[in-house]
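In response to reviewer comment 3 from the previous cycle, which asked for concrete evidence that the modeling workflow produces usable outputs, we include below a single protein chain processed end to end. The sequence was submitted unchanged, and the resulting structure tokens are shown without manual editing.
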Amino acid sequence: MATFIDMPKLSDTMTVGTVANWLKNEGDAIESGDVIAEIETDKATMELEAFEDGILLKQIAKAGDQVAIGAPIAAIGEEGEEVEVPDAAAAPAAAAPAAAGEEAPAEAAAPAASSSTSPSSPASTPSSDSRIKASPLAKKLAKAEGIDLAGIIGSGPNGRIVKQDVIDAKSGGAAAPVAAPAPVAAAPVTLPGLAIAEDADLPVSTMRGVIATRLVESKVNAPHFYLQIEVNAANLLATRAKINADLANVPAEHGGGIKLTVNDFILKASAEALRRVPTMNRAWQGNTIRQNGSVNLAFGVAIEDGLLTPVIRNAESKTLKQIAIEAKELIGKARNKKLSPAEMSDSTFTVTNLGMYGISSFYGIINTPNAGILSVGATQTKPIVNEAGEIVPGQIMTIGVSCDHRAVDGAVGAEYLQALKTLLETPALSLI
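The workflow returned the following structure tokens.
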């Protein structure tokens, strides 16, 4: 008798999942442990394994379908066996809400933006290795077989290369190499009024819908108030430059081989400031206010379809170097859709940084139940007055904090920013 594979619950907040891509086709032999599909949740895109042997008799949900938790998405059984699909399983779940908001998803499962392309230049053809869309299994197999993904046209959603495309390419089958580009004609003259893209109603990914819902809930339910402070980052920049210069001369096996970023210093100082002002490390819980005993520090990582927030746990007990190494690892996982839901859960405070985009100041939406989110702007050269009363150049960084007034008051937010300013302007304090 056929066995149904149901949509699994892959995170605590997941109510529906999207079949991002099928890695096995109907009729394929399946062994226990085989990855048969990629499932997009509200937090990440994760691989779905089969737990018994058989034949993939039917793909009940198609790629792109949203399916409720526990509803069947496929059937496995013996070859030739007929499958009766329950009526309730025939229709995909309703699309995720498209409320306004901002925060997370996995890069490969995000819908591609509509763009104007000519028939002779397929939209699915990647223009460089860095923009090739391929499943993790396809990339792994291509690397093992020495196959150039740039020569494969993907059959997955939005031209994504899947494992079968690589197998076909190896055997000289259906996947065809990319044709050589035609001679480039002279660029057309751009006239006023030409559209920047085709009009289109883009589907909302599962994760994008959850992001929108959560941020609307945060703005509606958590009474935000905002504080801002200016930091002279000259000492921080000088300290970072000196440490990086020294590390460049140290072999990796002796602790070198890394390069600290400004954001690493900010993460370390943010955690240390919470040690000094623990009342900022709280969460509103309705009838109680949770005082968190350790700092689980979330930080924003921008990807194609939004923002992921991996978490550095017990950040207050980690050195600057440990935080830098862990942050780099988490950023790599985020950009390669390898973060697990556990690596994005249970944060107590969040840091978001748009300084690399030249944004001077901004305020983030609180990542509830956190009591606050720190917003870091770009460092800019501005005139300042030194202790001698002289006007001199300064390296000014503007930092803001959005606070949940249910859990903390203005004085707490102000004390936290003062502690953070002290730590950033005297970075050696974070090294103690």
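The chain has seven helices and 18 strands. We consider this sufficient to address the reviewer's concern, and the full set will be provided in the supplementary archive.
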